[in-house]
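#help-structures

NK: newbie question. if I give both the sequence and a SMILES, will the prediction place the ligand too? trying with flavin-adenine dinucleotide
OV: yes, paste both and it writes out the complex. here, I ran yours:
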Amino acid sequence: MSSSLPQQVDVAIIGGGIIGISTAWALSRAGQRVAVFEKGVLAGEQSSRNWGWIRSIGRDPAELPLAHRANSLWREIQQQVNVGYRQIGLAYLGENATDQAGLQTWLDSAREHPTGAHLLTGEAVRQILAEPSTRPWTSALHSAEDGVAEPHLATAGIAHLARAAGCQIFEQCAVRGLDTASGRTAGVITEFGRVAADRVVLAGGAWSRLLCGNTGIFLPQLKVHGSALRTTSFPCGLDLAVNGKEFTCRPRADGGYTVSKLAASVADVTPDSIRLLRHFFPAWMAQRQNLNIRFGRRFFEELFTPTRFPLDRPTPFEKNRTLDPGPNTHSVFAALRQLQRAFPVFAGAQVVQAWGGMMDVTPDALPVISAVDSLPGFFIGTGFSGHGFGIGPAAGELLAQLVQGIAPTVGHHAFRLSRFRV
Ligand SMILES: Cc1cc2nc3c(=O)[nH]c(=O)nc-3n(C[C@H](O)[C@H](O)[C@H](O)COP(=O)(O)OP(=O)(O)OC[C@H]3O[C@@H](n4cnc5c(N)ncnc54)[C@H](O)[C@@H]3O)c2cc1C
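OV: that's the protein plus ligand as structure tokens.
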């Protein structure tokens, strides 16, 4: 491996998830010499484990320009390589006046942005569902512009486009830390040696805080465990992605469904959650209906993971190549039962697989897509807080613009790292 590493590139990217790879694609297309370093395999962590939703509805308005741009990029990607992208629409369902008021509140907050979202009521709701339901759905926040892609295809597909544009990608190659000179970024120290680069992008998902901390940069980020299951293929007319509160489901390209629910998330208490309590407490209170807080094994695993380490010997990044936390089967099977009760057609669905993934979250649930003021040449794209897959291609494009010092085509003020103070 060490002999095949380049001595120097224009931009080194840490992390081969959808964010690192989309950034690499955008930079390579712009003629930059780019290398991506992935400690495990491409999309081994969150980017292959998500539900596959490409969603504008329900997002923080600050992210809506990115979501809008991402739709165009997904279309462009699908024209070149099959990532399973389909603009099939997405709906949040309501069954009483309180639900409808909540859906309307989001619509009002998003009014200044192009979303394609509408509030449907009565017969229009039954028409988009196209399957008999036992539940009295009276309203739906629906966007026909939203869609899905297949997570097991998406990052690999974009990596194919990046390689075709000249990008080099190294798997099983951890970056131990940054090389700096005269107070600015000079490259990366990988487990196989140094690669010079005067610009480095960290797209390390749930590992970003660890690398930042060892570099003396404060990044408030925690991990939240999410889960999903997938079913066999069976005849079903529900051909859009749906959130029915106690369940979510979306049709897969293989004819089955990916099923879960928002409240399947578990936040383990860890030493970091105690260190960052002041930053995350308001978010935990706001999300308490969807979040289960648990104390267990992860506390001790993280307690014994060093937060400061030298770069001349194996680091935690090499010791754990792929975070593979297993599913919260209790929650996802409960979600499937609720779905079967709501839509009896799902009684014929058999479960093929259940899985878990570790989402990286920030205190305000917005990502960091930003230059690092204290270290010129260092950029961060992380903290996508459970919804970075859908906006991934647009987030990568935005990062690439920041790296090249060209005017961003979408607003990025809400995503700067400097919004957080120690
Ligand atoms: C169960 C679940 C459901 C989800 N559903 C959705 C959804 O429907 N829609 C949506 O938009 N989002 C969803 N998400 C969130 C989405 O998957 C993530 O926001 C997105 O994939 C983040 O991409 P990333 O590239 O930042 O991180 P990751 O995919 O985690 O990639 C980071 C990569 O960096 C590598 N890395 C870290 N440190 C180093 C290092 N030092 N050296 C080399 N490599 C390193 C890691 O090995 C990893 O492969 C879901 C997530 C989960 C877990």
